[in-house]
Specification:
Elements (H helix, E strand, L loop, with lengths): L8 H6 L8 E3 L2 E3 L8 E2 L6 H11 L4 E3 L10 E13 L12 E2 L5 H11 L15 E5 L2 E8 L6 E9 L8 H15 L3 E7 L3 H10 L2 E13 L7
Parallel strand pairs: 9-10
Antiparallel strand pairs: 1-2, 2-3, 4-11, 5-10, 5-11, 6-7, 7-8, 8-9
Length: about 230
Amino acid sequence: MSTHPLDNPVWSALTGPQADIVERAGSAVRYPADVSPFAALPADADDAAWAALADLVGPTTIVLTGPVHRPPAGWRVLESIPGVQLDGSAVAGAPDPEAVVLTEADVPEMLDLVRRTRPGPFEKRTHTLGTYYGIRRGGALVAMAGERMRPGGWAEISAVCTDPAHRGQGLAGRLTLAVAATIRARGELPFLHTGAANAPAIRLYESLGFRLRRETAFTAVRLDRSYPAR
């Protein structure tokens, strides 16, 4: 049974600090589709919980992580990416004088930057989950980072990305620390996820003070056509 908020972070967030935006059926929870593709079940999910998830998500693709990321029969795994979860409880963070808070007006540029850099799932309303900072050069958004999951007492740093033409300048690290400082100012602790194969990102985050907490996976699933209707 999971006891730490980060063991099942989507569940912890959507049944805790982010319960105001949850979509729920029985013991299945998810973010609104235009916010994030993540959904979750309790760690001891039974057949009824998986049936509730089927009712909740219908034919849409969702992403599972935490202790429940391998579905039973009736679900089709589209992709499963090994990942790591990094604990930033030792990271104090630091405001950045060049970082600006991104708003609704910046969403088209944020989506374009994500499309070109592929930091992970980012939808048109993902920015509503927390504070997002960006750095502009010549008026153009060239780097950003922000917040996504908020399990109790923690906040996830997410969507850390830099335009390829501006890499090597330390922008990702600076923005990660800026978001961490905002999280710490609220009395929460930062953490983040990244792909297990993304060695450069892991080295960067470890250089900032993040430490490996556990290995995980990000599994995109969809109901199989043979799944029984209820």
